[in-house]
Amino acid sequence: MKALAINGGAGRMGQTLAGGLSALGRFSIGALVDAREPHELFGASYASSFDEVDADSIDVVIDFSSPEGVVAAARWCADNAKGLVIGTTGLTNEQRRVVDEAATKVGVVIAANYSVGAVLSEKFAALAAPYFDRVEIIELHHDKKVDAPSGTSIAAAKGIAAARAAAGLPEMIDPTLRHTLSGARGADTFGGVKIHSVRLPGLVAHQEILFGGPGEGLTIRHDSFDRVSFVQGVALAADAIDATPRLIDGIESLI
Amino acid sequence: MKALAINGGAGRMGQTLAGGLSALGRFSIGALVDAREPHELFGASYASSFDEVDADSIDVVIDFSSPEGVVAAARWCADNAKGLVIGTTGLTNEQRRVVDEAATKVGVVIAANYSVGAVLSEKFAALAAPYFDRVEIIELHHDKKVDAPSGTSIAAAKGIAAARAAAGLPEMIDPTLRHTLSGARGADTFGGVKIHSVRLPGLVAHQEILFGGPGEGLTIRHDSFDRVSFVQGVALAADAIDATPRLIDGIESLI
Amino acid sequence: MKALAINGGAGRMGQTLAGGLSALGRFSIGALVDAREPHELFGASYASSFDEVDADSIDVVIDFSSPEGVVAAARWCADNAKGLVIGTTGLTNEQRRVVDEAATKVGVVIAANYSVGAVLSEKFAALAAPYFDRVEIIELHHDKKVDAPSGTSIAAAKGIAAARAAAGLPEMIDPTLRHTLSGARGADTFGGVKIHSVRLPGLVAHQEILFGGPGEGLTIRHDSFDRVSFVQGVALAADAIDATPRLIDGIESLI
Amino acid sequence: MKALAINGGAGRMGQTLAGGLSALGRFSIGALVDAREPHELFGASYASSFDEVDADSIDVVIDFSSPEGVVAAARWCADNAKGLVIGTTGLTNEQRRVVDEAATKVGVVIAANYSVGAVLSEKFAALAAPYFDRVEIIELHHDKKVDAPSGTSIAAAKGIAAARAAAGLPEMIDPTLRHTLSGARGADTFGGVKIHSVRLPGLVAHQEILFGGPGEGLTIRHDSFDRVSFVQGVALAADAIDATPRLIDGIESLI
After folding, report:
1. Tag placement on chain D: N or C end, fewer CB within 10 Å?
2. Is C145 tagged catalytic?
3. Are residues A65 and A191 both part of a single domain?
4. How many CB atoms lie within 10 A of CB D247?
5. Which chains touch A (3 or more CB pairs under 8 A)?
6. What pLDDT shows up at residue C29?
7. C160, C141: one domain
8. Are strands B205-213 and B134-141 parallel, antiparallel or unpaired?
9. Do C181 and D201 count as a contact with CB atoms less than 8 A apart?
10. pLDDT given at position C6
């Protein structure tokens, strides 16, 4: 049973991971590291910083803290020969360099999305891409999301475009001849993949990748209802690494 | 049992209507009027023009011919005291004037869409509009459709905007602050209703009207798979009229 | 501005309503009534029972407590000439009798479902029912739901069957001739409406009512993501009543 | 460019394949074999039986005829060293034996479903199966389909169950405790995969495989709108084989 320290362990994601990972039965939560005191401890000891963490009691650090927090975690893991799983995003180049350096000393997984369903969606889309004439993406999010299109949809479009190119297929051309109103046909992205972004209160995070060919359609839909969906992907990452130096970028290779 | 003459009776729509209407059991097909000879007669007599139609044998004319054909049908109906149901679109102002004049002498129904499902969709959308914070439309069509967005989706947006305005609701504001790629948020239409147009081979004609409010969503989806879906709406129109002067614009009021 | 007392105000629904209703700007929360102390007060005073509530400060009582709590609320409203909105379910006949008696003295709204989207779904389904040959319902819930099919889906089926019967349509007959495996064709309910119940972790509460006719389909989908969706329906009910005796059963008539 | 003979070439499927395969540009249609005379020839010569076919002009035979027709095609291919692609279903054991024997002399592909989208759906479902707690299938067909559940959905359930078992996952248990009406929870199939069969006029052939886990869902939907969707799968099969003895059962391995 691997013992985990969760950096950012008092945050909403940290608390969700602590609860979800301990419930799986194959991890113990050794420490919750956070400047703020956690609401629940899940059997872990609380540490306001890594200085207070007993290195002997930890196998892997899970980081869902902040870009600065990642630097502290990466250094501590490198110094103490612990694996590191990073879900924090928005790192500067310099912060990312510290992570890459840590990966020359210990095992590190870094990913923007730990949802297994999202990763499978992207994988299936790339597999289906060579067999259909056209593909468009609809991503639907709550109305508090500030940007459009979503990063996830752009990543999916990129993967689809690469798979089409690898199969020798041409860029897709928009068949619409008469645009009565601009914007209706969505954003034009990699390889001609169109992305349509819907924003409605009530929604959480949803994505449909729609393929069409003569007489048939194939749709891959992913619904994210709750952040607890990250638990499984983080668990796969924590399973995959230890002190052996290694950098795993994205969890696709673990699925 | 009303006897129908179908103008444009050799065309694909005319043949579908002849078969579908006669199968309902409450209409007989008295004449198929068309310059081309029809593939199937469905018990009707064939007339290459209205000159050859025996007026005594007909109660109502169904016109799915051409803008010029509509003019001939409207004049014949006005002269012979027959009801007229028009599904032909693309009339010039002058052609439309002839139709309006006929409606001062006999009953006329004119509509762009005889699909009951499409009409119900639009009606439900207007009824739901006052109760939700935001609404967006996704319309999905085969890749041979030349224009975007679809006329049906624009009509639905107009109805939703009118219903919101009548309920004292403000225009909707796009909540997206950062547009990474233009077009992602769709076409901006009446009252801020966004329309997204998807074009894929394999599809026929589909539309989703998505409403969102705190904690919930309501979606009205209409799928058109085949032109036979017009039979019911044409039948409702044929039931509704006779020689009494009257103009019914759209079949909403018949449902 | 109406002042509300929320019975069951410390519960999850009570707290959600207190926050949601006060945010609308047209209600003040005068009192939260609950044996347990509430987490948040939303400007209200706390009362452990109705004995502690200052009647002069309240216009309408909102009850999402327990069957016993409803009885106390109904008696207090009848005695103090206050309107009452009841969302608590599972009342015995005797408890319901107390509610009905209160409605002879003050205004009472009682409903099993305050989601406007759910009520609109049911209404639209009844409106569409006369125009389609067949209809089936798919309801999808999280895997902790103990019963199947859902009460909401059965109520929808009942409304559809009544609308079909009123239009002179016959009971629907299952077209399936060969049942390879029993259960595939769902539960047979009112008027032959089939209900299919899907149970998956991750889901919240979702329902699709699917209508089909020649060449077309119409689908009404409702998604409940969060209990905050009840706020609007409760607000409509609170708006609708005062001390004038009246019983409103279900919020359909308020929409 | 491979030259194809289409057995059953006057039927609806045969005509669709002749048109679709010749339009791809990498096949010529050498012969349409059918007792009935074909409506269109697509550049092929017409043969009322294989006796009239010039073997030198053909590389591969495509059979969408009848179980008896398959036997004739298999013998002719074996005798003349031609590849054979079989889409005809409903073979007796004896008829199937003739096919297997032909495959010891020439290349043979036999499959129940040549839709690439359907095959990809099944493949993706098996890949996703180990990562979700529960999965259910909804298949939706027109009301003329005589049986339920569909063969395609049962095959998908079988593949999912095998993938779950291979990953060491247990049979799924229905979480429903109280069945108010029997049948609501669908048909119980391999590994506890539930199948729900919807039958509505207007629909063609559609299938949704719904996976659910903590906080997320993944849905794989396939829509068949027209038999032209078989063209691509038949083309992949025709590409894959020649006179070299070989039996390919299903087109999964070709995708």
Report:
1. N
2. yes
3. no
4. 15
5. B, C, D
6. 97
7. yes
8. antiparallel
9. no
10. 98
**At a CB cut-off of 8 Å and minimum separation 6, what does C61 contact?**
C4, C5, C6, C7, C73, C76, C77, C82, C83, C84, C85
- How large is the average pLDDT for residues B210-231? 97
Judge: B201–A133 Cβ closer than 8 Å, yes or no: yes
Identify whether residues A75 and A200 lie together within a single domain.
no
pLDDT at A129: 98
- So what's the pLDDT on residue B23? 95
**C173 in contact with D, Cβ within 8 Å:** no
Put simply, the answer to whether D223 touches B229 (Cβ < 8 Å) is no
The answer to whether residues C109 and C123 belong to one domain is no
Question: Average pLDDT, stretch A14-19?
Answer: 97
**Same domain as A235, residue A185:** no
Instruction: Say what the pTM is.
Output: 0.94
Low-confidence residues of chain C: pLDDT under 70: none
Write out residues 184-203 of D within 8 Å (CB-CB) of C: 184-189, 194-203
CATH number at residue B11: 3.40.50.720
Q: Which two tokens stand for residue B135?
A: 């609404």
Is C121's CB within 8 Å of B218's CB?
Answer: yes
Q: Are residues D109 and D128 in the same domain?
A: no
Residue C105 domain boundaries: 2-114+228-254
Same domain, C237 and C206: no
Does ipTM top 0.85? yes
The pLDDT tens digits of the residues spanning A102-127 come to 999 999 999 999 999 999 999 999 99
Decide if A226 touches D, using CB distance below 8 A.
yes
B229–D204: do the CB atoms touch at under 8 Å?
A: no
**Assigned token pair, D170:** 């247990």
Phi, psi of B206 (to 5 degrees): -140, 150
Q: Which chain B residues touch D144 with a CB distance below 8 Å?
A: none
Cβ atoms C188, C199 nearer than 8 A: no
Co-location of B106 and B84 in the same domain: yes
D222 chain-A contacts, CB cut-off 8 A? 216-219
Query: Structural domain tally of chain B?
Result: 2
Token pair of B164, please?
Answer: 């919101």
